Amino acid sequence: MELNFNKTDDLHATLTVALGKEDYNDAVEKQLKKSQKQMSIKGFRPGHAPMGMIKSMYGKSILAEEINKIASQKLFDYLKENNIDILAQPLPSASVKSDVDIENKQDFTFAFDLGLAPRFEFNISDKDTVDYYVISVDDAEVDKEIESLTMRFGEMSPVEVSEEKDIVYVDMTELDENNTPKENGLDNKNVSFTPELVKNEALKASLIGLKKGDEITLNIFELLNDNVTVISSSLGIDKEAVAEIKPMFKCVVTEISRRKAAEVNQDLFNKVMGEGVVTSEEDFRTKIKENLESYYKGESEHHLEHMIGHLMEEKHTFQLPDSFLKRWLLSSKEEHYNEQNIDERYGKEAKVLKDVLIREKAAQLFDVKVEMQDIEEASIGYTLSMFRNYGLQNPDFELVKKFSDDSLKKREFVEQMNDIALRRKVFVAIRNTVKLNEKPITIEAFYKLIEEHNHQH
Q: Same fold for the domain at 2-116 and the one at 155-260?
């Protein structure tokens, strides 16, 4: 056996594996005997077909399988023994021809192209400074939150005339080009909307002052802000079908509801904080302020993590084996990549890969290791966030834990949580390394800053 490693540049290499009969013969004979015992061939007792027949029928395929297996194993053994880090998986060489003529030869050569991982130093230290925003929560913000809570926990009641924040219920019928009910169109679909959320100002104005029984004609795409998901859900049709519907609908108002603000009393305290957690308005305000401060601290931490991500990207400029990686994407992800889109889509893949490499370098430097406890904590946080996205603000912990534990039985989910846990621990390590320039800021100024930053990027 002979292995030859040829490094064409810092990021690309070719490795050839030459096999002689002595390198694979024992493995092939072993597999032939195993196949002989397992084969059931007409005219012979199971497992007793002549070896000559087995070789004639299956010898070539077994030989091909075994030499490929041995060549791959020797390739990865070589990489491991020589501490050669590669990206993606080896590919059949595009420049060196393999010689695997099993019909006529006994010596074979396999040639593999490799994409080498770039070598770089981790460049973030205590000399780097990152802005950290300390968001202030004043009494006005507490008042605003309490007002929001009183509306959220208030009761709905029917009203005669619609206002901007009311919920208006209508029966909708699809119209054709002549403003008559479309043949086989959507009919009597019960839909609800809130005028306040309609972006088209002229349409919004026409939705205020409606009464039960009023009939109006409107553009459903304007009503629901061109949101395909909302339109399909409201009309009870598939997303794909939204493009086929006519825009104009006749709407008959069936009901108008308005939420009456709840009173600030013990009943509201219990609904928001839990039974008996607070017993006075003063304690309620204190808890609200604490919750808001905790929330905005999380927002600030999230922004800090985002900015540290930018710092990591800015401080590490290195090349990837681009040509190799494009070839690999084209061969391994044919459903997503082709010659027409590879250049356009590769940039996003390259950015993600660079982020991973920088993060792994940081984890090595700071000796960050992800334990099962870290994965479980990441899973709990992920599950809790998912529950809250579905409107369960204070879900029972046992329910969250059970859902999390069930999810952790899936290998793909564990890998996802491992990545989240590693990302978090690396962030903490870098956060504790760089200097934080604390800047007091109001809530409005903070979100304006975020908006401007997002616009720039």
A: no
Q: Phi/psi of residue 114, each to 5°?
A: -125, 140
Domain residue spans of the chain: 2-116, 129-138+279-456, 155-260
pTM: 0.73
Q: Specify the pairing of strand 129-135 against strand 435-441.
A: parallel
* 3-state class (DSSP) for residue 421: helix
State how far the Cα of 231 lies from the Cα of 244, in Å rounded to an integer. Answer: 12
Task: Give Rg (Cα) of the chain.
Answer: 33
Q: What proportions of the chain, in percent to the nearest 5, are helix, strand and coil?
A: 50, 20, 30
Sequence-distant (6+) residues with CB within 8 A of 312 are: 124, 355, 358, 359, 362, 430
Q: List pLDDT tens digits, range 291-331.
A: 999 989 999 999 999 999 999 999 999 999 999 999 999 99
Q: How is residue 361 written in tokens? A: 């370098």
Tens digits of residue pLDDT in 115-173: 999 999 999 999 999 999 999 999 999 999 999 999 989 999 999 999 999 999 999 99
Contact assessment for residue 119 and residue 427, using Cβ atoms and an 8 Å cutoff: no
Given the candidates 2.160.10.10, 3.40.630.30, 3.40.640.10, 3.30.70.1050, the CATH classification of the domain at 2-116 is 3.30.70.1050
User: How many CB atoms within 10 Å of residue 123?
Assistant: 15
Q: What's the rounded Cα separation, in Å, for the pair 217 and 389?
A: 34
Give phi and psi for 452, each to the nearest 5. -65, -40
Tokens at 252, concatenated: 């008959």
Token pair belonging to 209:
């002052």
Residue labelled with tokens 């990021």: 11
CA–CA dist 14, 97 (Å, integer): 11
Instruction: Tell me the angle at which helices 281-314 and 443-456 cross, rounded to the nearest 10 degrees.
Output: 30
Enumerate the β-bridge partners of residue 6: 14
> What is the identity of the amino acid at 288?
I
Q: Which CATH architecture has domain 129-138+279-456?
A: Orthogonal Bundle (1.10)
If one looks up domain 155-260 in CATH, what number appears? 3.10.50.30
What is the spatial distance between Cα 8 and Cα 323, in angstroms, rounded to a whole number? 13
Q: How far apart are CA 104 and CA 102, in angstroms?
A: 6
H helices within 228-341, ranges in order?
228-235, 239-242, 266-273, 281-314, 322-332
43 alpha carbon, distance to own chain's centre: 57
